[in-house]
Every structure is written in C-alpha cells, then in structure tokens.
Amino acid sequence: LFSDGVTEAQSPDEVEFGEGRVVNLFRQIASQSAHQMVGKVFDEIDRYAGEAPQYDDITLFVVRRDKLWPNQA
C-alpha cells in the first residue's frame, strides 16, 4: 500500500516517478523482507528525485507473509 506521493514524486525535471517504476521496482525486490523493500523503495525515490522538492507525503506500507499455514499448499 502506498500514498499517491510515491507515484507522484518528481525528478528535478518535474517528471513523476509513476506507477510503472513502482511496479518494476517491486518485481525486482519481491524476494526481500518487508523492511528491505521499504528501504529500497525510499532509496530509489530519493535517487530519482535528487534535490527536487516534493509537495506530497510519501507513505509506504509493506506486509509480507513468508510461510504458509500447515494445511495450505
């Protein structure tokens, strides 16, 4: 789950981060822990945005379940 501030984070050229970048990033980091995933997303947004000011909150919530219950396949 994430706020619109994740996809609307802007580069110095005022280009939004966008849903496509979010989807691609999560595909790349899907095997990592929830804590690592949050860190990677914020790191990538920071790298993308550089020194550009952001005008919205950037909120991200990741829940990960690694193990199945005994009766699930």
List strands and helices in order, with pairings.
Blueprint: H1 4-7, H2 18-29, H3 34-49
Helix pairs in contact: 2-3
Word description of this protein:
With 73 residues, the chain is mostly helical. It contains three helices and no strands. The protein is elongated and about 50 Å long.
- How many beta strands in the DSSP annotation? 0
What is the CA-CA span between the terminal residues?
Answer: 26 Å
| CA radius of gyration | 14 Å
Which percent band covers the strand fraction?
under 5%
The residue ranges in which pLDDT falls below 50 over 5 or more consecutive positions are none
Helix content: 40-55%
- How many separate helices? 3
| Broad structural category | mainly alpha
Q: Specify the overall morphology.
A: elongated
Report the average pLDDT across residues.
Answer: 92
**SSE string, helix = H, strand = E?**
HHH
Largest sheet at a glance?
Answer: none
Task: List its traits.
mainly alpha, 73 residues, elongated
Short description, anyone?
By secondary structure, the chain is mainly alpha-helical. Helix content is 44%, strand content 0%.
